[in-house]
Amino acid sequence: ALRGEQISNIGSQDMNDEVWFKLARRVNELAAMPDVAGIVITHGTDTIEETGYFLNLVVKSKKPVVLTAAMRPSTALSADGPLNFFNAVAVAANKNSAGRGVLVVVNDWIHGASSLTKTSTTAVQTFLSPVWGLIGTVAYGEIEFFRGPVGRNTTDSEFSLDGVAALPRVDIIMAHENMDGALIDAAVAAGAKGLVIAGVGNGNMTKAALDALAAQAKKGVVCVRASRVATGQVGRNVEVDDDKLGLVASLGLNPQKSRVLLRLALTKTTDLKQIQRYFDEY
Ligand code: ASP
């Protein structure tokens, strides 16, 4: 049997920590109920990759938790929502979906929450898992799984919202030609305890920006180098000397997912070795 409830209008203009906390707590409550086999969450496409990854880290259940979305409104020609919802329910009800972490089902594909990203502002085929590939496919409810999740998740995650009242501020700053340190310093002045740089290429940036970042890192702000490039990994100590400058490399996580992980990481520690380990394992 299907039953439904509304947490909030989960569209990009309403997405905030209050919604995240409500959603995560409710998913944990529902997942603990013996008569619940799986959970489907309908979500806007803009921030589904962040919510999915957040839940992947703080839900404490092996039961399937599946997010789905639609690129076209229900009033549009060839609306994609109904089939996406049908497929998401099929995946959530399937025993083989358990233990694969939080999943996102859109346009016949089953993505892991850590790997998918939105790649087109308008196309129905917007979601890709560019670095790690798909977890499976689903065609009119017919499911084929290829692999398990990438990265620790759910019951195997060290993160939890128990005893956490709020998440620390972490800002994302995009690198570009002629970048200086002004926004880096302004973010810290605004209260950021961590920074994610959406760097150029392999997490790189101008010398001026790097100097500002290293100075903030020295003062205890945890600084992660990610990339504004859509696919590929950001390697530690490859183009930038992370050891010397006290920085963290995002490895396979894009900037928006790096921000989610860093916020949760900062609820536990500011130790750079430990935070780099989180980026390695999650
Ligand atoms: N802007 C919408 C969002 O909140 C788009 C959508 O619903 O897919 O994500």
Question: What's the quick description here?
Answer:
The chain is α/β, with parallel strands linked by helices and 282 residues long. It contains 8 helices and 12 strands. The protein has helices at residues 17-31, 48-58, 81-93, 182-189, 207-218, 242-245, 255-265, 272-281, and strands at residues 39-42, 65-68, 103-106, 109-112, 117-118, 127-128, 136-139, 142-145, 170-174, 194-199, 222-227, 248-249.
Explain the layout of strands and helices.
Layout lengths: L16 H15 L7 E4 L5 H11 L6 E4 L12 H13 L9 E4 L2 E4 L4 E2 L8 E2 L7 E4 L2 E4 L24 E5 L7 H8 L4 E6 L7 H12 L3 E6 L14 H4 L2 E2 L5 H11 L6 H10 L1
Parallel strand pairs: 1-2, 2-3, 9-10, 10-11, 11-12
Antiparallel strand pairs: 3-4, 4-7, 5-6, 7-8
Helix pairs in contact: 2-7, 4-5
The structure holds aspartic acid.
The site of aspartic acid has 7 residues, from loops.
What would you say this structure looks like, in words?
The protein has 282 residues and is of the alpha/beta class. It is 30% helix and 17% strand. The strands form three sheets. The protein has a six-stranded mixed sheet with strand order 1-2-3-4-7-8, with helices on both faces. Helix 2 (48-58) runs parallel beside helix 7 (255-265) and helix 4 (182-189) runs parallel beside helix 5. The two termini are 33 Å apart. The model has no long low-confidence stretch (mean pLDDT 97). It binds aspartic acid. The site of aspartic acid has 7 residues, from loops.
